[in-house]
Predict the structure.
Amino acid sequence: MAAKLLFVIKGTALVERYGVMMLAAALKRAGHGVALARAQRLGVERLRQKVRELEPAALLYSAMTGEHQYLLDVNRRLKEDYRGVSVFGGPHATFFPEMIYEDGVDVVCRGEGEEAVVELADALAEGREYAGIANLWVKRDGDVARNELRPLVEDLDALPFADRGILYEGDAALRDHPTKIFFAMRGCVFRCTYCFNHRFNDMCRGLGRVCRARSVDGLLAEMKHVKARWPLRYMQIDDDTFLLHKRAWLEEFAERLPREVGAPFMCNVRVDLVNADNVRLLKAAGCHAAWMGVEAGDERVRRDVLKRPHTDDEIKAAVTLLRRRGIRVATQNLCGLPVEDPVAVDEKTLALNVACRPDFAWSSIFYPYPRTELGERAVAGGYYDGSLADVPETNKINTMLAWGDEKTTRQVENLHKFFGVVAEFPWLWPLARRLINLRPNRLFVLAFFLWYGYCWKTRIEKIPFTPKTVFSLFKTLLEYLRGVKELAPARAEAGA
């Protein structure tokens, strides 16, 4: 027997939701029917109609922290007349499974969900009990069964290829976008305090190896599968730390990728893993760009607060190694950290980027995600009250921290908007130093996104800067920033 299931996401903004695609592939391989709805694009009433037409056995919500409030609102509205099972998974459900107590939430899936969601679909199709399935928390009449996590998936090659078709159907822009996302590895051994990995690793201790790699055969097979079906001119290999792969793996990958797939890629690297041999292999494999975390320009803050023990000289040397091999570098930086003088730290971070001369200096405003080490530090220091309800979806506009005066907040938010432009054109700093004292405004936000989009698409992704590119950037920006106004009353009611 087969079950019908409907995935519900907020939207994509031209980003493939890899977790959803993997779950959909697992369900399809098990013989179940799956469909997908973009809540923001449809709106609640059209989404409600879609649910009535499909009559799915379960609604599967994939939520990141920040968008979870939106999707909880959507679910509450749908549950006014939907009698099936509402399941929440994804990063937010993994780290905050107590969302099971929210109205309308029946099941929460924690951790890697491919096996758990198939077991659940099998049980729904056959009318069997599912309260004891590992990885799931299940609510019945107010009582919650809190099941343990199952072992991590050891053999990643045994999983099916991500089902991209479920996202591409009805989204021509995403389907035709020439960059596609791939993962060659799961897991990260490092414990950066702003990241979720340290918490996930603690949750899964004793359940298997943290880092698990696909074989080169398996990864290349998926790349060729995608290239044969959809536009593929560039690839984003989104492993947390690509250079954690073993040397033999990197050598085989560098030898085979150019002749078997023939598309360049970008990946994420870490300063202490950037060396001459690794950079040589990256270049041989066809790496066009590398994202590398700088995070903070103050060595003490970087070491003691962020647990990233790299010196300024090591960061500069890593950028130089990559750029000498013709690999473009995009640095990742955090603004507005929970420290006494965040503006001074941000100015040091900007100065370090000016010295490094990356091809793209990207910056994010720090968000104190609860249950990360740095989030807890922000609460302990009185910079943030720890409320999940206040965590927004994007880390690109406002700070959530309070340093005790409006001037600091204003300077943090505005310096973030000018960070990338000033890193590229340091002679603009005297002007930017004056502008950061002004009240934050939409013009600064627009300038930030335009520079971000231009650098990302043309320097990192190698997409020609044409009128079509400009139109796509504006369309994506609008989708990213806009909210669904019809949900406001439901949100206000839920918070009352």
